[in-house]
Amino acid sequence: MSERTELRIEAESIISLVYHYSFDEAEKRISEMEKAEDDYPCYAIAVCLRYMMEDYRDINQMPFWDYEARILPVDQLNEDKITASEIWIRVLVSCVKSMTVPQDERKKIIGKVSSLVSSDDMDIGPYILVQSMKAYNNLDSNPGQAVRILKECYEKMLGVYGKDDWRVIAVLAELASAYTDYDKPEKAIEVGENAYKEAVGYLGKDDSMLIMILDNLASAATVLYNDDTKGYPYLRDAYDICLKTLGADNPKSLDIEEGLEIALEYMGKNDEILPIKENTLAVCLEKGNKRSLASAYSSLAGSYHDSDAKKCEELLLKAYETAKEACKEDSIVFRQVLSLVRFYKEKGNEVKADGILLDFFMVLVDRCGTDSSVAYISFIDLFAQHFQFLQLPLSLFKAALSRIDADSMLYFTLLTEYAVRLKQSGAIDDAMGYYKEALSFAEKHFTSESEAYAACRLNIGIAFEALGNRRRAMRYIRECIEIYHKLDTHSKDSALASYNLGIMYIDEGRFEEAIPLFEEALAFYKKDGNNVQAASSAFHLGISYQESKKLEKAYRCFSEAYAKYIAESEEENALISETLIHMATLNIDMGNYHKALEQAKKAYDIDKEIKGEDSYTAGFDLYVVSTSFWFLKRYEEAAKNAMQAIRILEKYDNDIQTEAAFEVAIEAYEKLGKIKRTEALREEMRRRFR
Q1: H/E run at residue 397
Q2: Which spans of this chain does UniProt mark as TPR repeats (predicted)?
Q3: Backbone φ and ψ of 165, nearest 5°
Q4: What is the rounded CA–CA span in Å between residue 247 and residue 230?
Q5: Could you tell me the pTM of the whole model?
Q6: Are the beta carbons of 146 and 136 closer than 8 angstroms?
Q7: Cα–Cα nearest to 586, from 561, 558, 615
């Protein structure tokens, strides 16, 4: 038997253990594989299997602070030396739940993954396909693609192994889950029931693999009927199997128990919840598994949240302290920190909430050391992004800065973020001081042609702009762009720098100089998949082209902006109407009067709805409508809309635009032969604008 075949068999054996929630045994065998760091395929597969296990164990994935140490560089891919399945493995190590690999790079890799779905080299195919589906889904919110991949996988696995095989059943169960994500719960239940039937026939009615299938069925039933009680029968069966096969202290048992609690609450059977949780806690105390014990404390605390705040706090503190003891190798402490901070926030005790956050931050620093920003990234990602109700106070950043080595990367990262938060709070002068300190750090520790150095100059430039010092703002941002050009690097910061400088150039009438800047920003945002920023870049590029008399290019840009704004918005908004009115004025210049009229009318309808029929924008829209009618020789309508535009525009003291509307009205009445009306308007116009 070849080494590669042995590796494949071992991997599938571990996958089977994970699907059956035998995590302790899986942990031992994965640890052995991880020791082979000089054997790339073995080590890569081990890392990937660990991600899978942590996912199924539901403890928030691998430790955030360990992520960068484990991930292998993307450029290590070498299709001439490794098989297709190892490329799949590499993809997952790079992509699944990744916080560091750029999105455009992940998309490129996922595209490669998708092209390998039909590969004959299945190796550890069930898991690879399932997890690739999850990675794709996380990147592009494309559950339809996930369903397609899993269906192909299921058909292929069925042909290779037959229906009575745990791998085939596992893929069928994941397909049911994907249908739920795809918002097709009826199909999810149909496929899930089929998976359950096959599993019972092959594995027996008490096999732990049924837990996953029943859990998926519960989710589908809840979604289908929009009713948590509909999933209860499935959860009850799943929990019974958990107790028989895994024990009450197993993470999956605790997860199912949480779903049961929600269903029982909706059913008004609160008296059944407490005994279940107390029994679970007793088992966890007896067995001494700190990971499970922390979750049990936290779960029981939830039952006292409304009835006994003191008891709830006591249990949450026990959960937190237990989690800190247990978090040497995993991230369960995250959940307990979150629960405790949420409790203190709800009770209005900001001091204790901040104290827990700062304490946890220092735990991360101790784990990572201060030469890495991973601790900080973990901290911010978890609390400031995933859980919006926790807005980290500025005082917390200041306290953290006082505890960190001032020559460490972590200090630099915190310093920059603190300056950003100060700027967002309106304290621009204070923010500037910290931005300058960050720049001093960069000058000391980085080369003058590094991304970090460029980012510092960008931040200072943006701060100067906010302070109204445009000259200095432009100088700093130009220097930032020059560094990125020398590095031949395109990133969010480089795109932001180009975009901001382009806006300043437009304000100064330097349209030709703005064009290449918006072209750079647009190219990046399109590649990055950021439709909103791409639309704004295309819009301003359109303005730059329009003012530079490059009308066809301008129209293409506005059309692209319009399409992207429409794609991102479920309702009409000011950005859409503003783009439409620019397209309308361009169509007038290019002689496309019918199209101009259609666009101007649509812009008016939007602005009238969201800003009011007497708003300036509505008045300007009517002026463009009247101009379109005039060129179409529909003079009655031109005059009527021009007069309505005058009535609105004159309220805003915009003489140039009001005078233009007068001219349209006068010329329209003149064409209609209404001499007295024409002369009266001319006299009024002379009186107003002499």
Answers
A1: helix 394-403
A2: 495-528, 577-610
A3: -150, 135
A4: 25
A5: 0.57
A6: yes
A7: 558
Structure tokens at 62: 């691998």
Q: How does pLDDT run across 247-274, given as a tens digit for each residue?
A: 888 878 888 888 888 888 888 887 888 8
Per-residue tokens: 586: 């361009």
Q: What is the pLDDT of residue 187?
A: 92
Low-confidence stretches of the chain (pLDDT < 70) are: 1-5, 37-38, 40-41, 44, 47-48, 51-52, 54-143, 145-146, 327-334, 367-392, 569-572, 690
Distance set, CA 70 to CA 50, 250, 474 (Å): 11, 26, 41
Q: Which of 435, 453, 458 is nearest to 443 (CA)?
A: 453
Q: Which pLDDT does position 391 carry in this prediction?
A: 64
553: its two tokens: 């290019």
DSSP string, 145-210: HHHHHHHHHHHHHHHHH-SSSHHHHHHHHHHHHHHHHTT-HHHHHHHHHHHHHHHHHHH-TT-THH
Q: What are phi and psi of 224, to 5 degrees?
A: -60, -45
Contact 81, 41 (CB under 8 A): no
DSSP string, 491-552: -HHHHHHHHHHHHHHHHTT-HHHHHHHHHHHHHHHHHHT-HHHHHHHHHHHHHHHHHTT-HH
Helix (H, G, I), strand (E, B) or coil at 21: coil
First to last CA, the chain: 98
The dihedral over CA atoms of 290, 291, 294, 299, expressed in degrees to the nearest 10, equals -140
